[in-house]
Amino acid sequence: MERLETHGCFGGTQEVWKHASATLGCEMRFGLYTPAHDPGERLPVVYWLSGLTCNEQNFITKAGAQAHAARHRVIVVAPDTSPRGEGVADDPAYDLGQGAGFYLNATQAPWAAHYRMHDYVVTELPALIEAEFAASDRRSIMGHSMGGHGALVAALRHPGRYRAVSAFAPIVAPAQVPWGEKAFSAYLGPDRTAWAEWDATALLAGAAERLPILIDQGEADSFLEDQLKPWILTEEAARLGHPVTLRRHPGHDHSYYFIASFLADHFAHHAAALQG
Ligand SMILES: N[C@@H](CCC(=O)N[C@@H](CS)C(=O)NCC(=O)O)C(=O)O
């Protein structure tokens, strides 16, 4: 492991680390914010999953998360959004390949060799963070857009692993929207029955835990009507009695200006669950 960046920030440190991922078979970078803490103290961890085209930098440089993490005394881990490197399959489009891993485990060539972001985020990365840093095993997960989909799927597939889950402008039903149909066709193949394992709305009925979901959505988001459609999830949640809070915000788009505007509420929601 190699530390690439370190910056004092709100009394703690914002770092960027690089390591060799066995799950992904390539080098990966992640952002790590650690608040001030006592020697030997272990703090809970919030995992952040970014959206299409992002790497480990977008959230740590644009969201203003460090102030909230310092106040609530939680570590924040922000991984890259896909495997990377010359030996890793890619596609010229922004919504497939590097920068667009969709937080699933691919089964189809040429993607299956490296694209295992679900296992990386849910298993390998937490094991590393809890072994090497001042982290406890109290975890929560949040994300944006493709990363909101990743956070919802991680929590729904692993009851008990996360104490809170929330999302900004998430893709809630990838099997029913163009971004997801394109990515799932490539990564999982044409058989749509395999897609249901990676679709938050489809997973909801069989969820072994009714962990409350908090979602913020901008009404001026250009992806709202075609790609995000949060009502697909809220209608299914209402049918099942799964607690979902969807807050819609006029005048807010899909950008990090929107995320920064409501991030304090997400940290408060996560901290209450992590420290309770
Ligand atoms: N039209 C955009 C779509 C990608 C996009 O909006 N990405 C969002 C996540 S889905 C993002 O966070 N972009 C990086 C940023 O705003 O820092 C593009 O081609 O870059």
Number of strands: 9
Radius of gyration using CA atoms only: 17 Å
Total of domains: 1
CATH homologous superfamily title = Alpha/Beta hydrolase fold, catalytic domain
Give the DSSP E fraction (strand runs of 2 or more residues). Answer: 15-25%
Q: Give the distance, in angstroms, between the N- and C-terminal Cα atoms.
A: 33 Å
Q: Per CATH, which architecture? A: 3-Layer(aba) Sandwich
Helix coverage percent: 25-40%
Q: What is the number of helical segments per DSSP (H or I, 4+ residues)? A: 9
The structural class is alpha/beta
What compounds sit in this structure?
Answer: glutathione
State the strand order across the main sheet.
Answer: 1-2-3-5-4-6-7-8-9
Q: Which of globular, elongated, flat, extended, rod-shaped describes the shape?
A: globular
Unreliable stretches covering 5 or more consecutive residues: none
CATH overall fold name? Rossmann fold
SSE order, one letter for each helix or strand: EEEEHHEHEHEHHEHHEH
Keywords: Hydrolase, Serine esterase
Active site: 145 (charge relay system), 221 (charge relay system), 254 (charge relay system)
Protein name: S-formylglutathione hydrolase
GO molecular function, one term: carboxylic ester hydrolase activity
